[in-house]
Structure formats: structure tokens, C-alpha cells
Amino acid sequence: MIYKDASKPVQERVEDLLGKMTLKEKVAQLYCAVTIGGAKTINSLKENHKHGIGTLSFLNSSLSGDNKNDMKTLRDLQKFFVEETRLGIPALVHNEGIAGAQIPEATTFPQSINVASTWEPELAQKIGEVVKKQLMAYGIRAVHSPLFDLGRDPRWGRIGETYGEDPYLVAQMGMSYVKGVQGDNQVMAAAKHFVGYGNAEGGRNGGEQQIGERKLLDTYSFPFEAAIHEANIMGIMNSYGILNDQAVSTSKWLLTNILRDKLGFNGLVVADYGSVTHANARYRVAENKKDTAILALKAGMDVEQPSNTCYQYLVEAVESGEIEETYIDRSVRRVLETKFKLGLFENPYEIGDFYEEINKTEYEELSKEIAEKSIVMVKNEKNILPLKKNLKIAVIGPSSDNKTNFFGGYSSVGTASTTSRDFDRSEEDNYIKSAYTASITEYKDGLKEFGIVFDDQPSPQQKEMIIAMIKRNAAKSDKLYKSAEEFVGRYYPNCKSVKEVLEEEFGKENILHANGCDIKKAIDNGIEEAKTVVEAADIVIAVLGGRESMRDPEATAGENKDNINIDLEKPQREMMEEIFKLNKPVVSVIIDGRPLSTPLISKKSQAVLYSWLPAQSGAQAIVNILTGKCNPSGKLPVTVLKDRGQIPMYNSRLPFFVEINDWAEYIDSDKNTPLYPFGYGLSYTQFEYSDLNLNTNVASDGILKVCFNIKNVGEFKGDEITQVYIRDCVSSTARPVKQLVGFAKVGLDTNETKEVIFEVDMRQLAFHDLNMEQVVEPGKMEIFIGASSQDIRLQGVFDIIGEKIIVERKVFSSKVTIK
Q: What keywords sit in the KW lines (predicted)?
């Protein structure tokens, strides 16, 4: 058969197989199923998916923690589809991967906001390469990563999963991860969430978004477009929510007109969990599940996930003439093409040795390196850091002797206690209430087997039955561990707390410890205990912040865990107010996925570090920075605010006043600027910029060459992240006050000088004009080069000359050479 012949072209194999498929077999390729593990899952899938399946969910929420058993389950499931269905089409099995493969024992990496803080796209690519190898060795060939959302609202619980606020930085980091994880079509990455997901009103996860089409194309779509054309992304996942009054999951305008026709994507679109059902159950743009399926498929949604709640009605819809079979064929072709490109028909099972992969020490070292390079030092008054020797140190704070807080919500640790339904909960931070809502809408059909049948709303008696079932299921567990803490101890035994590493470094006798408070709760006598150890110490290390998780009661962020408070939680602020009164030098370390506004901490501490979510080697990385074993080099990928009332405030804003650095005109003038600007970060050394040289005239289709020198004039070897911004002086539409067009990390010994050369194609500056044509306009441009978006060291001007040109596609990346 042609479709089983690997020597034949992919399209020929696709058409051959498609021609052999029944309608039911075709529609089955548009389904997904969630695995739970063991014989029950296998038997259920055999019964319910005898015609095959498109994708298979194998997230950490599905796993028991017994990797050998879970790998056997996955192999048995795949063996069923390959050997026991009529056509033998393998399932495309997916997992998560922004912080490492979402599998117990797989290498965990710092969260995406950490990776962005390194400003080293090469590190993102290295993460992707590790994730690829470990997933393939497990038998998984697709990953729902990375996020290309812009993180501009610190209330949003998922901002730590993003690569920051700037479309250029997000594109560079995301594309590099995609190149690493996809390799040579070995794993399918899914860029998400298309589109504007992080821009929801009020920072409410999956909420309403209003984005003008020009902003949508030039800003929010930019990273996706870059991934399509520079990284050959194979998959796209839609966003939750409503964009410009359209449910994203059923929007032809977004999924076809914009994504495919305008941006040029020709791969597979997979649904975020439950997002297809939202169109009917939440947003009410469809009357029933069959109508929802028709709308979504016609719009361009290829595969419904995590189940076939709506798409199960597509066979009936075709047979009744409500939708043409050509729409089914269109999406099935994309599914089959993806599977053929991945080589699934030839190699549907594990490729590599999972245990060999997870035991490679270089992967653990890579995780530590990223954690070290991602730590951003925003204050170091009187050079209190690096720490001197022979100190007695008070270590306080809720994350001072805690390990789980180092891990992101989508890491294997962060999802240790989740279920598949947690990925599709409502935004309300109340598990029972949100699970109940999901049960009577998206999962209503599943209640029938328990004798619970209703039209619109359950009866009071039925409601009691459903809630009782939710509570019972929440208490059930087939896992080898009972908590995230136990999970870390079992699968990441080398992970240590900051207290433990400091004891190793300075000796236990010199480390005095008291938590003082929990993340969100006061501890009886906790502040007094903290004061006692502080009074006996020379210096204080306060390890503060939050917890990113879908489930943890202490969680302050995570999916469906949006937080109106963008500062530390009240018990931590109250504790620190008392500690500062003791007049001991304080070094504050913030562990959090969100860019917390910390005005009190920033004002009163002698030093402040944003460590984000540094993963399994996070404590060692933090102590290496504190002691000077590593020179901090991280810079902020987001703007850190003083107050939530400033939201939104980000660097590439449109002009507000005449002066380029004017942000706002609030009555309280202290709130007119951010706490820390985008691109900011300190080092233990200092850098001097000089000798700017650039073209004065550049053709509208030409390349600007920018040269300058950087010298390390301090006492430590260090890395400087230099940033290049351009401003259009006069344009047909308002343009950003500073557009990031390039950056580079420059390593310098003391007294060493290096030349940095950027080449910026003018098509990077293309935007949609008043006629919605993508153009490069001639005119005067200003260029800014600096250590942050506000710390500008060199600046100049040049002119774009010639005629206005219309460009079909932007150039997405500048080139840099360091001599």
C-alpha cells in the first residue's frame, strides 16, 4: 500500500490513505482522548475508538509516577491503534514541555520567564532539544509548547509561562525553542495561544479581548508569524476566550483568514482543552454541540481536545447534509500529513532510552546554568552583594526552606496533583464550584452513566449528587505520591532549599532560620520567631514570593489562578515591615512567576533579586549569585510596576507626551513611571559604551549596519545584554516610542573591549498603514542602544530613503556579530 511506503512523497501517502478511509475513520482522526493509565484506559479506548484516533493526551495528570508502568500503558495503547484498527494509523501523543517534559524524573527547567530573562535564545533551543529527546524516549511525539503570548498583565496567572512582554523578544526565544524541540520533524511543537490570550480584560484567564486588527497583526501575531516562517512550526493551538466578540475556537476570521491566509500557516490546528465546547456552553454562539462542531471545523479547527465532546456529532452532520465531507477531508489531510512528516507510521513507539536521557548530568547542569543566568538583580546598595565570608545569616520567608515553590505550574512538579479537567476550569478560584460548572456543561454527557439526566440545569438533588462525586474523585489517586512535596523528594532528590545550600556554603552554625509566615497565611508567633533570628544575625536573606499551581491552596498564580494583588501577599508584607524595623541589612529574593510589584521591599532592602521559578537547581543558582560564584547577568523581559493601577504599562507603548520617556499623567507623580523598566538588570561589574557608527541613509528594502564598542570597566568578569531600539519619527500611523529590533549578550573580562555589529533589515520595521497594507515608509528614524529600554548609552539618527514599499512578509530577526 502506498501510504505505508516511506519512500513515497508525503502528499501521495496522504491521498492514498484518505481514499481508503470511511467517514467514521476520518472523523476519528479529529478526536482526542485523555489517558488515565492501566487496563481501564486501554479497554475504554479500544471500545470507544475502534476507528482510530487523532491525538492522545498523555500529560503528567495522566501518569501514576511509575514510569515503567506508564510507558508500558502508552506502548499498549499505541500498539492497539497500530495493530488492531483497520488501517493501523498511529496516535499522535502529546505532552507539555515549556519547563521540561511533563513527566516524573524528566529534567525540569526554569520557567519561560526565566529563560527570557537570560536573553539567550540559544538556551531556549537547548531546552527544546532536551525535551525532544526525553519525550521521544517515552513514546511521545507532540508538545503543547511554547507560549507565544505577550505577558503584559501581572494579574494574569500565566504570565510566568510567557517569554515576556515584547513581541521581538518573545519571537526570538520561542522560535529557538521550536527549532530545538522539533528538530528534523521529530516532534510537533504547538505554538500557543492563538491569539491575544494574555491580553484578556482584567487579566482574567480566558476572558474577553478587544484588539484592533492592526495591533493584532503587527504586535500579537508577530511571534506566531515568525515561528511559521523562521521555525517551520508544525502546530498551532488556539486561545481560550472571546476576541473582538468572536469565540476564538469557532472564528473563521482568526483560524483561517488571519492564521492561514494572512500569516501563511499550513500545519495542524489543535484545540486548547475544552475550548471548542466553550463556544456552546459558555459563550453561547452555538445552540448545541453538533452546531458547535460544525462551526469549529468550518472555521479551521482541525482536532478537538481533550475529547470528542462536540466532534462526535460530525458523522451525523455529514450524513444529514449539514456540513460537506470536504471539510472533514481538509482537516484529516492535515492530521495525516503531520503524522507522516513525524515518521509515526515507521516509528510509532519509543525512540531512545528514557532512563539514559534523564540521568545525563549535562541536562542538570543546563538547568542550573539557565537558573543562574535568569536571575535579575535590580538593586545592590553599597555593593552588599556578593556576600562576605564569616557572616551569621538569618534566612527567613515562606520559600526559604521550600523546594516546590521553585517550579512552574506547567512543570512536572507543578502538575503533580492536577487532573485533566484542571486545564479547562473556569477562571473562578473555587475548585468545587468550577468543577461543578464544567461537569454540567462540557462533561454533561458523562453524567448519564450515573443516572443523572437533565435538560438545562440539574435538580437540587442531582446537584448534590454531582458535587459529592466531584469530592470523591478529588480525593482519589492512583499515583505513587500524595503531594507535590513528596513528588519532589521522590523524583528530584538532588533538589535543595535555599536554607540547605546556604548551610553547605557557610556552615549550619552560621545559618539561623525561621519561615516567619506562609505564602498567604500568618504563622502563630511566626513574626516573633523571625525577629529573634534576625536580631542574632549580621545579615538577612528573605526568600519571598508566591506559588504557581493550578491546585495548591497556597497558589498565588497559575492557570485559572489570576490574582488582583500584584505585590507580595499580606502576611509577607506584614512580616517584612517588622523585620525592616530591626535595621539589619536585608537581601530580598523573589520567587514567583509573576513580575511582582514590591515597592516596600525595593525601598527597604539593600539588595533585591528576581529569581522567578528557577526549578530543580534553583537554590544552588541563587546562592551562587549571592556569593559571587556567578555574576548576575539577567535582565527583565517585562516591565515591573509600582501599583496595579498602572496596568497596562509596557515598553513598546505608543507615544503619550512629547518626551519619549513620559509614561503617564497620574495625580500621584510617583506612579507615572514603572518600578523597574523592561530590559533592566544589574551586574557586579560595569560596562561602558562608545564609538557608535551607523549608516545615515538606508533604502526602504535595505539593511542598516550599526557598530559600537562595549568595555568592561569594573572589577569582575561579566556579561552585558545590549539592546537596540528604533523609533519612527513621523509615520502614517502611531508607532511605538521604542521598538526592540535586536539584542546580544556580550561576555567581557575586566578591561576587555568588544565590537558589536548589528544588521537590521528595514522590513523588520514594516507595519500596516491606514490602508491595511504592510509597508516600509521612508523617513527619519532614531536609534537607541543601551543597557535597558531606559538606560540608553548611545543614540543616533538615520533616514530610510526611496519609495514606500509594500512587503508581503516581514523580516523577523536582525543579525549580530561580536568581535
A: Hydrolase
Q: Give Rg (Cα) of the chain.
A: 27
Q: In this structure, which amino acid lies at residue 721?
A: I
Q: Which residues contact 327 (CB under 8 A, 6 or more apart)?
A: 297, 298
Q: What is the pLDDT of residue 70?
A: 93
What are the grid coordinates assigned to 557, written together?
Answer: 498564580
C-alpha–C-alpha distance, residues 23 and 325, integer Å:
8
Integer Cα distance of 189 and 145 in angstroms: 6
Buried b (16+ CB within 10 A) or exposed e, 462-497: bbebbbebbeeeeeeeebbbeebeebbeebbeebbb
Instruction: List b or e across 171-202, with b for residues whose CB sees 16 or more CB atoms inside 10 angstroms.
Output: bbbbbbbbbbbbeeebbbbbbbbbbbbbbbee
CB 744 within 8 A of CB 723: no
Strands (E), 292-434: 376-380, 393-396
How do the residues of the chain divide into helix, strand and coil, expressed in percent and rounded to 5? 40, 20, 45
Spatial neighbors of 771 by CB under 8 A, at least 6 apart, are: none
pLDDT at 426 over 50: no
Angle value at C-alpha 586, between 668 and 684, nearest 5 degrees: 90
The three three-digit cell numbers of residue 267, written as one number: 500545519
Half-sphere exposure of 103 (CA within 13 A, CB side): 31
Q: What angle do CA 163, 556, 463 make, to 5 degrees?
A: 115
Per CATH, the number for 687-818 is 2.60.40.10
Provide the pLDDT for residue 427: 34
- What is d(CA 557, CA 429) in angstroms, rounded to the nearest whole number? 10
Domain residue spans in the chain?
371-407+490-672, 420-475, 687-818
**Residue linked to cell 538606508:** 698
Q: In what order do the strands lie in the sheet with 188-194?
A: 32-34, 55-57, 92-95, 142-143, 188-194, 235-238, 268-270
Can you read off the three cell numbers belonging to residue 131?
Answer: 525535551
CA 572 – CA 511 distance, rounded (Å): 21
The neighbouring-strand residues paired with 32 are 55
Report pTM. Answer: 0.94
List CB contacts of 743: < 8 A, sequence separation 6 or more.
119, 169, 172, 721, 722, 723, 724
pLDDT, position 423: 59
Contact 613, 585 (CB under 8 A): no
**Whose grid coordinates read 482543552?**
273
**Cβ neighbours of residue 453 closer than 8 Å, sequence gap 6 or more:** 447
Mean pLDDT for 599-613 is 97
Only one residue has cell 537547548, namely: 126
Please tell me whether the peptide bond between 193 and the residue prior to it is cis, using omega within 30 degrees of 0: yes
Does domain 371-407+490-672 bear CATH number 3.40.50.1700? yes
What letter would DSSP give residue 738?
Answer: S
Nearest 10 degrees: Cα torsion 677, 681, 686, 688: -40
- Of the candidates 441, 26, 56, the one whose C-alpha atom is nearest the C-alpha of residue 274 is 441
The CA distance from 623 to 625, in Å, is 5
Q: What is the largest CA-CA distance in the chain?
A: 81
Which 8-state DSSP code applies to residue 147? Answer: B
Tell me which residue of 315, 98, 301 sits closest to 191, measured CA to CA. 98
Please check the confidence at residue 140 and state whether its pLDDT lies above 50.
yes
Q: Provide the pairing of β-strand 774-776 with 767-768.
A: antiparallel
Nearest of 723, 725, 635, 722 to residue 687 by alpha carbon: 722
Q: Which residues, in sequence order, are CB contacts of 561 under 8 Å at separation 6+?
A: 157, 205, 409, 429, 548, 549, 550, 555
Of the candidates 199, 189, 213, which has an alpha carbon nearest to the alpha carbon of residue 150? 199
